[in-house]
Amino acid sequence: MRNLVLIGVCLLAQLTSAMAAWAGDVAELEILGFTRDGGVFAFEEYGVADGSGFPYANRYYIDTADDTFLKGTPIRVRLEDETASLDAARLQAKQKGEAIIAQAELTANRGITAGFNPVTELSADPFRMVVNPRPIFSPVDPPLEFRLDEIGMNDTAGCESQGEINGFRLLRIEASDGGQTHLLHEDKSIPKSRGCPNGYRIGVVQTFSMDSISAYAVLIAVRQYGFEGPDFRWIAVTGRL
């Protein structure tokens, strides 16, 4: 009996080790918020890179009127030292971000997380999210619906050995206008900053309102071929209503 227990412990240890070896790197997501007028949306992704063990923290500041990065952003911090702490990387990114927009303003205008679908969610539709933009019941706003399509781009230079490569298209469906479709984003090519993406899923819909809903951000998880398993990073598509 003792031998059987020891064998079981060894098998469990091997299984746990194998799972850790193929864990990949899923970046944590932190919604930083909006400026007080909803004109800018900011978020942070952070984690420890698989393979190297280096901590990183990236901050993105996006103009919601035209869905472009503010000058001097994104802010990317990577501490090339396995002994460096993740908190140290995040602190550096935060300090650099203060020169763009004060953290206090973003925190005071965080907005509403109207929809949330983490990469661990298996039962939800990764390509469609419909939300009530504000927690008001009965709803006073028409629902916001977003749909994502993957676009095959296997001819992307530098990604030949990285599996199936995809860009994406994001649509907003206008519930109050007979289901009219608005194209929010469509890749014609894959930017180098995104690496070699294998797939996508809608992760978060964040809304901002004053008297009514005035801005939104759709956070999309990007799956990549990683050193120890799939890696996930975050991008956002923003807009005004």
From TrEMBL:
Residues 1-20 form the signal peptide. It holds the Pfam family DUF2259. The keyword Signal applies. Keywords: Signal. This is DUF2259 domain-containing protein.
